[in-house]
C-alpha cells in the first residue's frame, strides 16, 4: 500500500523534508531527562502560497522561547528549526506554526509536519508498523509514510508536549530504528 503525504509535492521536496536532529538517547522518553539540549529539525510547511508567507512563519517561530534559529525555504516548503528541547518541543513548534495567522486570511492556515528518517520503511509491512506505532501516541493527528524517501511525516494535534526523542523511541519499540541526519 502506497501512503502519500501531499500529492502536490515532488519526491525532491520529500527528500528535503527529512529531519536533522542532534543525537539523542532513544531509550528515554521523559522530556526533562532525555531531550537533547539542541535539536535541528525540518518541518514541512503547508499553506505557503507566496514567498512573503515564509517571513510570516519565520517570525512566528523565531518568537518562541527556546528557538535558536529558523529558516523557511519557499522552494522546498521546509522550515529548518534549531531549538532547545528542554524549553520547547516539536509538537509546540508545530502548534505555533498552525496557529500563525495566514497572510491570505479567511480559512487559510499553515501547518508544520515534522519528518523523521526511518530506513526500514521500505521493507514490506514496516510502513504500516511505523504508522501504527506513531498514531498510538496521544497528540499525533496524522502520520504519513514515504518508503521511497525512507521517511515518516508526523502532524501533531494542537496541544501537547511530544518530543522528537519520544517519536524515535516509539519507532524503536516497534522494531524500527529511526536514524537521524548529522
Please tag this protein with its features:
182 residues, alpha+beta, Alpha-Beta Plaits
* SS summary, helix count: 6
Radius of gyration: 15 Å
CATH class: Alpha Beta
What sort of overall outline do the alpha carbons produce when their principal axes are compared?
globular
Measured by DSSP, the beta-strand proportion falls in 15-25%
Count of DSSP strands? 6
Number of self-contained structural domains: 1
Describe this structure as you would to a colleague.
The protein is globular. α5 packs across α6. The longest helix is centred in the N-terminal third of the chain and has 12 residues, at 51-62. With 182 residues, the protein is of the alpha+beta class. It has helices at 11-17, 31-34, 51-62, 90-99, 126-135, 164-173, and strands spanning 39-46, 67-73, 78-83, 111-117, 140-146, 151-156. A six-stranded antiparallel β-sheet has the order 2-3-1-4-6-5. β5 (140-146) and β6 form a beta hairpin. It has one domain (13-24, 33-173): Alpha-Beta Plaits, CATH 3.30.70.
